[in-house]
Write a structure and sequence with these properties.
The model is unreliable at 106-120 and 130-138 (pLDDT under 50). It contains five helices and two strands; from the N terminus they run βααβααα. A two-stranded parallel sheet has the order 1-2. The protein has two domains: 2-83, P-loop containing nucleotide triphosphate hydrolases (Rossmann fold), CATH 3.40.50.300; 99-129, no CATH class. The chain is 39% helix and 4% strand. It is mainly α.
């Protein structure tokens, strides 16, 4: 599971504005607190879909430094905080994601396309990603 960014709601929605006004008036809940809680709830639900039983395994990546902030971390469930310890020092790491991974992910998304949609042929995996092989040096 790769989560890029934090899934905040579209804040210009009239329905959301009404809900935020109600929460502020009735329960004195700040708009930013509600939006942050809701976004991190959605993140938690997505991550919970990776591992559903003791036999499952998966990789969960939170690709946004804001998840390391104390105000965001405290709103995540305990099992996520335990499995994803905060970084010791703030850092920015640039990660190269091979295009074949992104193409593979897009193929998975397109598999749920309506009938009649032609899916692209999957490309062979990158040599670095093939298990048990090493790429030939040039």
């Amino acid at each position: 599971m790769l989560i890029i960014g934090i899934p905040f709601q579209y804040t210009l929605s009239k329905i959301l504005k009404a809900r935020l006004a109600y929460m502020k008036e009735k329960y004195q809940i700040d708009e930013s607190d509600f939006l942050t809680f809701d976004a991190l709830r959605q993140t938690s639900q997505c991550m919970g879909r990776v591992i559903r039983s003791k036999q499952d395994y998966g990789i969960m990546i939170l690709a946004d430094q804001r998840y390391a902030r104390a105000d965001k971390r405290q709103k995540l469930p305990g099992w996520i905080r335990e499995e994803h310890p905060p970084p010791r020092a703030p850092s920015v790491r640039q990660v190269h994601v091979p295009a074949c991974i992104l193409r593979g992910a897009s193929c998975l998304l397109l598999c749920s396309a309506p009938n009649g949609f032609t899916l692209p042929r999957p490309t062979p995996p990158h040599p670095l990603l093939s298990a048990g092989t090493t790429p030939a040096r040039q």
